[in-house]
């Protein structure tokens, strides 16, 4: 995987909280895609997470007999609907975002989106009776909401906690960040992407993300 440093959970989570405090007022940009899962865009935070959970379970159930590409097609319309990738892209690049052209910003959003969907398709590929707990929500400052849902093994083993931070955009709730067992994906990406921009350039970062996306696909056929 392109993102590899998962060691300092508390530092990363605090970094994500700092990043997300700057996200208000950033507009949501929509894309077009062919629908696979057709439930409407949810207006309640818990429904957004439930919609994602249902798609992840569908992907896992497809894993035994289906292909990576089939899982990707299941997940793409849902992941792109429930996550606010333009905001996440802006936050993950920090100060470098404003230095990009509009065309580069659009390209980065699209590349990050494909990479994120690839991660889900690659890792939610095996079903053994797992289920997600009903999401619980907590109101935060600035109108945001934290929604938590656990992935529970059938055999009663260790649960995995998924904590989603959501914010309203154009009247709809969108996910800005997900922390898995305390590890913030946005904080990890912020650290990795800004470091790449310091020591390389935009094109190198895009190439790395595209390479990682291809490796996820290749390793999950």
Quick take:
The protein is of the alpha+beta class and 221 residues long.
Task: Report on the architecture of this protein.
With 221 residues, the chain is an alpha+beta fold. The chain is globular. The protein starts with 8 loop residues before the first helix and ends with a helix. Helix content is 49%, strand content 16%. Strands 1, 2, 3, 4, 5 and 6 form a 6-stranded antiparallel beta sheet that branches. Strand 3 and strand 4 form a beta hairpin. The chain is built from 7 helices and 6 strands, in the order αααααββββββαα.
Measured between the Cα atoms of the first and last residue, the distance is: 16 Å
Q: How does the major sheet shape up?
A: 6 strands, antiparallel
C-alpha Rg (nearest Å): 17 Å
> How many DSSP E strands?
6
- Indicate the structural class: alpha+beta
Q: How many helices?
A: 7
The coarse silhouette is: globular
Beta-strand level of the residues, as a percent range?
15-25%
Secondary-structure element order, N to C: HHHHHEEEEEEHH
Q: Segments where pLDDT lies below 50 for 5+ residues? A: 1-41
Q: Helix fraction?
A: 40-55%
């Amino acid at each position: 995987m392109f993102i590899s440093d998962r060691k300092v959970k508390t530092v990363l989570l605090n970094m994500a909280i700092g990043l997300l405090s700057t996200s208000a007022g950033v507009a949501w940009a929509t894309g077009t895609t062919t629908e696979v899962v057709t439930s409407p865009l949810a207006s309640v935070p818990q429904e957004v997470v439930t919609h994602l959970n249902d798609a992840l379970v569908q992907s896992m159930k497809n894993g035994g007999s289906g292909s990576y590409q089939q899982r990707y097609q299941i997940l793409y319309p849902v992941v792109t609907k429930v996550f606010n990738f333009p905001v996440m892209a802006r936050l993950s690049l920090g100060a470098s975002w404003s230095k990009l052209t509009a065309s580069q910003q659009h390209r980065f959003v699209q590349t990050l989106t494909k990479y994120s969907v690839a991660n889900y398709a690659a890792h939610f590929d095996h079903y053994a009776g797992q289920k997600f707990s009903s999401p619980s929500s907590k109101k935060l400052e600035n109108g945001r909401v934290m929604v938590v849902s656990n992935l529970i093994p059938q055999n009663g083993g260790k649960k995995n906690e998924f904590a989603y931070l959501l914010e309203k955009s154009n009247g709809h709730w969108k996910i800005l960040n997900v922390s898995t067992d305390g590890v913030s994906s946005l904080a990890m990406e912020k650290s990795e992407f800004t470091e790449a921009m310091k020591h390389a350039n935009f094109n190198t970062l895009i190439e790395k993300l595209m390479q990682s996306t291809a490796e996820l696909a290749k390793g999950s056929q």
